[in-house]
Structures are given as C-alpha cells and as structure tokens.
C-alpha cells in the first residue's frame, strides 16, 4: 500500500515527521474548490483566522474526504498562511488566481 506521507524523490519533505493534519489551513486556502466557488490561492470564506473551519459540521463532501499527505510536511511547518499557500501552489506548479 502506498504511503501517502512519503514525498516523491524530487521533493524531499521539509518535515517528514508531519504524518497527520496539524490544522495549518493550507488545503482550505491554496487549491481551487469548485463546490465552494473558491479560486486558487484564496482562503475559503469559511476559514477562520485560527485556520479552523467555520462550518466544520456542515462542510461539503470535498472537504470531508480530503486526506492529509506528504504535502502537509512541506507546508504545515511554514510560519504564515501566505507562505503555506505559496508553497502548496509551487508544489503543484500553480499560480494564484488574480481578481479581474
Ligand atoms: S494542508 Fe495538511 S496539515 Fe494543513 S490543514 Fe490541510 S490537511 Fe491539515
Ligand atoms: S468549508 Fe471549511 S474545510 Fe472546507 S475549505 Fe472551507 S474552511 Fe476548509
């Protein structure tokens, strides 16, 4: 079975000790989430300043099914949500959407 916390060889993990969600908020801010009409690189409207979900009990299926993986080890140790967003997008070769 594949270890989803094992980073690919081209991207050695910043923190191989991260093997569970630390609640860093990056996956609620970096990816685009169609179910929430959330663009790339823009924090979800439900993401609270402490990086917790404001509608946790009623969050959509896409959020319920999201599973932490090796990317968490790359983004979670970074000090700010902005830095975590930038690194998350960089890993996937994406650029944040700009308004307009
Ligand atoms: S990026 Fe990973 S550690 Fe951060 S909130 Fe999402 S699942 Fe949790
Ligand atoms: S609804 Fe909650 S869990 Fe889903 S992206 Fe927004 S803040 Fe994150």
What is the fold's blueprint, element by element?
Layout: H1 61-64, H2 70-75, H3 81-91
The chain binds iron/sulfur cluster (2 copies).
Summarize the structure in words:
The chain is mostly helical. It has a domain at 26-91. 21% of the residues lie in helices and 0% in strands. The protein contains 3 helices and no strands. The chain has helices at 61-64, 70-75, 81-91. It is globular and about 35 Å long. The structure holds iron/sulfur cluster (SF4) (2 copies). Residues 21-27, 68, 72, 75-76 line the site of one iron/sulfur cluster. This is Zinc/iron-chelating domain-containing protein.
Protein traits:
single chain; 100 residues; mainly alpha; 3 helices; 21% helix; globular; binds iron/sulfur cluster; Zinc/iron-chelating domain-containing protein; UPF0153_domain
What is the molecular shape? globular
Oligomeric state, counting identical vs distinct chains: single chain
What is the rounded Rg?
A: 13 Å
Strand share of the residues?
under 5%
Number of helices: 3
Question: What is the ordering of alpha helices and beta strands?
Answer: HHH
Distance between the first and last residues' Cα: 44 Å
Number of strands: 0
Mean pLDDT: 89
Low-confidence stretches: none
Task: Name the ligand types.
Answer: iron/sulfur cluster
Q: Could you provide a short overview of the structure?
A:
By secondary structure, this protein is mainly alpha-helical. Helix content is 21%, strand content 0%. This is Zinc/iron-chelating domain-containing protein.
